[in-house]
Specification:
CATH class of the largest domain: Alpha Beta
Radius of gyration: 21 Å
CATH architecture of the largest domain: 3-Layer(aba) Sandwich
Number of strands: 14
Largest sheet: 8 strands, mixed
Number of domains: 2
Order of helices and strands: HEEEHEEEHHEHEEHEHEHHEEE
Shape: globular
Strand order of the largest sheet: 9-8-10-11-7-12-13-14
């Protein structure tokens, strides 16, 4: 069954938006305010009224169809369709202006590096530079805001990993598609229907038993950053991961904060020293209307505890147009 067929019976008024391949995201801000993202631009869709009661029933039915639940005791839904598209919802009273529903479509097209160059995401010389980092087994952190193209770039860089290496891919939601034959894919699981949750941290700890040459972590959100840092410190080089951040430098700070969220009993400067020694390259992407592009690439040269700052050099600074 197609992923959207799972939810379309409950969303007839916006069915045409969900099935439109040129629309990447459908956003319902209550029953009367519908927005879409198309070609990188967000625009309103007037003239559609879902009805608050109907929208609530639709969201609850969607949750049940996806093996999940949304209710007053659990007002947040974060689920995935069979094709990889994401369905997120929040209901009142947590959602003040009515039921909020966001459907982020999975792009089945597998972009290559040439696609990103043609789209203006990065320049050709920089693409070669990033390929060189992957082949040299540098640990690369890809930073950016939601929808900036972090996963797409990670997917492309992952394809540069030599085919004779064993790759272990860990994701919260399966989105990345690599071409290696010797690929092991792990996916986290939320607690539901009496089944215990399997976290990213659980999977990272289990990964060492499966002899990975490289570990790819889809996204760093919290304490799993400490487990990844431990793996990088024990010789598992060539790792790739993403993190939400507003700049390359802030990506390092965000990674550090996530390490501290693990509850590890280490001094702040010791954590920063480990991060400075383990993360080699940070790539930052930006999203602007109609465009997603690499704005910064920095090489990390360590951490200075006396000045409490990371040392790094710009390989590319799109803001200053440095090459």
């Amino acid at each position: 069954m197609n992923g959207f067929e799972t939810i379309l019976p409950f969303l007839k008024p916006i069915e045409h938006l969900i099935l439109d391949d040129t629309i990447s995201e459908v956003m319902v801000n209550g029953p009367d305010h519908i927005f879409i993202e198309k070609a990188g631009f967000i625009e309103p869709v007037p003239g559609i009224h879902l009805g608050e009661k109907s929208l609530m029933v639709a969201v609850k039915n969607i949750a049940r169809r996806l093996g999940d639940d949304i209710s007053e005791s659990k007002p947040i839904l974060d689920s995935r369709l069979p094709d990889g598209s994401r369905v997120a919802a929040v209901i009142p009273p947590c959602s003040v202006d009515g039921v909020t529903l966001t459907i982020r479509k999975f792009n089945a097209r597998h972009f290559g590096i040439e696609d990103l160059i043609r789209a203006g995401t990065l320049e050709r010389w920089l693409a070669y530079q990033l390929e060189g980092y992957v082949l040299a087994r540098k640990n690369i952190l890809i930073a950016g805001s939601t929808g900036s193209g972090k996963t797409s770039l990670l997917n492309v860089l992952g394809k540069f990993i030599p085919s004779d290496e064993r790759v272990l891919l860990i994701e919260d939601t399966s989105e990345i598609h690599l071409g290696q034959d010797n690929l092991v894919r792990f996916e986290a699981r939320q607690a539901q229907n009496g089944l215990a949750a399997i976290t990213i941290r659980d999977l990272l700890k289990a990964s060492l038993r499966h002899r990975p040459d490289r570990i790819i972590l889809g996204e760093i959100r919290g304490g799993e950053a400490f487990d990844l840092l431990q793996l990088l410190n024990t010789g598992h080089s060539g790792s790739l991961s993403t993190v939400h951040a507003t700049s390359a430098k802030q990506g390092l700070s965000r990674f550090t904060s996530c390490v501290l969220q693990s509850g590890v009993d280490l001094p702040y400067r010791a954590v920063k020293t480990n991060v400075g020694d383990s993360v080699n390259v940070v790539v930052h992407l930006e999203r602007r209307p109609g465009r997603r592009f690499v704005s910064e690439v920095i090489e990390i040269q360590g951490y200075d505890p006396d000045r409490d700052e990371f040392h790094y050099g710009f390989i590319f600074d799109g803001h200053k147009e440095l090459v």
